[in-house]
Every structure is written in C-alpha cells, then in structure tokens.
C-alpha cells in the first residue's frame, strides 16, 4: 500500500470514530435526562453504567481469560519485553504532544528514549533509557487539550475502550494518527500486534484489580478522573495517588 492509501485508511478510521463519538454523545444526552440528581462529574451515569456492564461482560468472557492464559504461559521477562515494546512506540505520541504543549525538554527526552530503546534496546524490548535515568512524562492529545484550557467535560465510558471524558474522547483520533501501529501495512500483522497489546496490558492488571473495593464502576471512574487530572497538571494538584507499588491505576488499562 502506498502512502496515499495508508493516509486514506487512517482518515476513514478517524471519520468513523468521530461518527461513533457523536452517536454516543447523543445517546448519553438522552440517558442523562432520566437522572434526577446526576453526579456533577458523571451526569450520564445511567448510560455509562450500561456501557460499563457491556465492557465487563466482554472482559469476563473473552479478554480476561485470554490475559490469564497469557500470564500463565508467558515468562515474566517476556511480558516485560512486550510491554516495553509497545510503550516505546508511545514515545512518538509523547514527542508530538510535548511540542504542542510547549514542553521542548520533555519532547527531547521522549525522542531520546525512543532512539535509545529502539537501537540499544533492540526495538524497544529493553527499556535501556530508564536504566540510565532518561525519563520523562507521557503525553497524549487529551492532555494537550487540557493544557490548552479545554475543559474535561463529563465522564464517558466508551464501548470496548473503557473510561474516558468528552475531552479525552475528542483527542483519540490524533492519538491514533500518532501511534506507529496504525501505519503497519499488513492487516494481519497490525491486528495481531493490537491484540497482543490488549492482552498484555490486561494481564498486567490481573493482580492490581483485586485491590478494587466497593462499587467497581465508581472506583474505576474516580481513579480515572484523579489520574487524568494529575497528568494534565503535571502533578501540580498533589502527589500521584496511584504511584505506589501496591496500586498503579493506568487510565489506558482497557483502552485502545
């Protein structure tokens, strides 16, 4: 496939995503009208809980069993390498969004990490950069919109993708554009890598999810919102409440 074909394919993907987002917003708006006293941060809770239940069913029937099998048969060093590989690809996104946010230093660090881990780290399988203390903050377009002053909007649970907000959902198309897997020409290879990424990420949360207490929906919602606000403010709102060894909630746990 030539460059024009790849660009067209990504454009179709983004267009479809925007249409889906619009439909979700309309449905969510209808659902919110049924709430007498909606949560200010989650005015579409009725709709969101239904989507959450759908996602949980898919996870219970398919994704979690696959993750458990993957975790059982895959040695930990291999899992670490797989996670490093996909994390390294995300450095491209961080470079672009750091520049858009006026953070050239972080962009330089991300670029350096990508070069070091891609070369010395053999395609990113080894996180050499962290070992030599070349570290920075991950950035995406949802964070960029926040830095630009765009409000986060209501909390929104997306089918299959999980926790989000209106602002973060708006930023997803550019995140797709800037993730290298989007440009893999072979469909089978791209789908296989995407599936591996999802399963590996889900496996990394098998132990952490046991720490969830109370209403699972509310816990994940509150954790997501707190973490995203921490990321947008670069930690200015206080310590990261999920940075301990005991629990490290990742807002992308069930996304992408």
UniProtKB/TrEMBL annotation:
Record keywords, A-Z: Lipoprotein, Signal
Family label: Belongs to the MlaA family.
Entry protein name: VacJ family lipoprotein
Organism: Litchfieldella rifensis
Domain of life: Bacteria
Matching InterPro entries: MlaA
């Amino acid at each position: 496939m030539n460059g024009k074909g790849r660009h067209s394919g990504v454009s179709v993907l983004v267009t479809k995503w925007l249409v889906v987002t619009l439909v979700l917003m309309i449905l969510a708006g209808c659902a919110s009208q049924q709430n007498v006293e909606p949560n200010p941060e989650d005015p579409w809770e009725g709709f969101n809980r239904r989507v959450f239940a759908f996602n949980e069913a898919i996870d219970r029937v398919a994704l979690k069993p696959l993750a458990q099998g993957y975790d059982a048969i895959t040695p930990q060093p291999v899992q670490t390498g797989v996670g490093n590989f996909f994390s390294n690809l995300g450095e491209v996104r961080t470079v672009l969004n750091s520049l858009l946010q006026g953070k050239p230093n972080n962009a330089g660090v991300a670029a350096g990490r990508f070069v070091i881990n891609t070369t010395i780290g053999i395609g990113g399988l080894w996180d050499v950069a962290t070992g030599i203390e070349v570290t920075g903050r991950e950035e995406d377009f949802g964070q960029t919109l926040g830095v630009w002053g765009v409000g986060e909007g209501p909390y929104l649970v997306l089918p299959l993708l999980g926790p989000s907000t209106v602002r973060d959902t708006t930023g997803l198309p550019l995140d797709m554009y800037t993730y290298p897997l989007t440009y893999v020409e072979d469909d089978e290879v791209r789908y296989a890598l995407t599936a591996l990424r999802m399963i590996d990420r889900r496996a990394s949360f098998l132990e952490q999810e046991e720490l969830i207490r109370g209403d699972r929906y509310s816990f994940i919602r509150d954790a997501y919102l707190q973490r995203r606000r921490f990321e947008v403010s670069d930690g200015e709102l206080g310590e990261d409440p999920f940075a301990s060894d005991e629990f490290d909630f990742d807002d992308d746990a069930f996304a992408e």
